[in-house]
Each structure stands twice: as structure tokens, then as C-alpha cells.
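re: ur question from yesterday

yeah so i grabbed the chain u mentioned. its 158 aa long if i counted rite. heres the sequnce exactly as i have it in my notes:
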Amino acid sequence: MSDLTLFLAEQYEAELTAFRTSLDEVPEEAFGTATLSHAPAWHALHIADWLRLVVLNDRTPNYHHLGWETVEGIKNLGLQPAPMNENAGKAAVMARLEEIGAQAVTYLHGMSADDLNGMTFSPSAPTGERPRLLALGMHLRHVGYHRGQVQLAKKVLT
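ran it thru and got these C-alpha cells back, copy pasting raw so excuse formatting
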């Protein structure tokens, strides 16, 4: 394990912990209800899906919470039923996020320099892919963005 992979794994673990803490503070009865844009449950499943795609490089065709489902490159990733939806209940959604997050952190710990220097699928990139290390950094900020969305929605609830 390099210093860089250790750093990435630690940063993902810290951000995912902060994200889960923010979600934990949402009352059960509000977890599946959209306030400003999406429900907290959607944010959790959204990040779990993006962890699968960006970090784990999982191409299982059951993505439904990426927010890019109408983009050509994503359409083929959402052919099967979603593993879980926003109505599954807070405990189930949080367990899914925890499971995928733990897999992602473990995967990051085991990445090699070659893994970090490769390319990865990215629907927002003009070519449909981007450098893996750049994608990981962008995704880490993406988790923080959605944590902020949850925090803002909690203010609306109170």
C-alpha cells in the first residue's frame, strides 16, 4: 500500500463517516421524503451507486440512483431492477451504504500505482472516461456535496 492509497482510503472513510452521521440525524419518518430535491434515502443510495461505479468499478447493470440514467453511457447500467429503492426503510438503506462504503475503503487500501494511474468510466467526461485518480478525487468531493444537501434539507425539516 502506498502513501497515496492510504491517504485516499482514509479520506473516503472520514467523508463517508461524516455523510452517514448526517443521514443518521434524519428522523425515520423523513428519511424517504424529498424536501428540497431528493429524499435523504435517495442521497444515500446515490452515493452507494457512485461508490460502486467510480471506486469499485462495478458494471452490474442495476444502477438506478446515479442521476444520469438518461445519458447514453449509463442506460446500459440500469437494465436490471435496483438492489434497493428509497422506500426500503432507513435501516436497510443505511446498511447498504455502510456495506458499499466498507467495500470501497477496503478496495482503496489495496489499489496499486497502476490502478491509480489508469482510466475509468465517467459519464460526465467528454470522452466517457477520465483518469482514475482524478475521478476518485472528484467523487470524494461529490460525497461531501451530498452531505451538504442532506444538512440543508434537515434545516427545512426543523
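noticed a couple things. The longest strand covers residues 119-121. also The longest helix spans residues 132-157.
anyway ttyl
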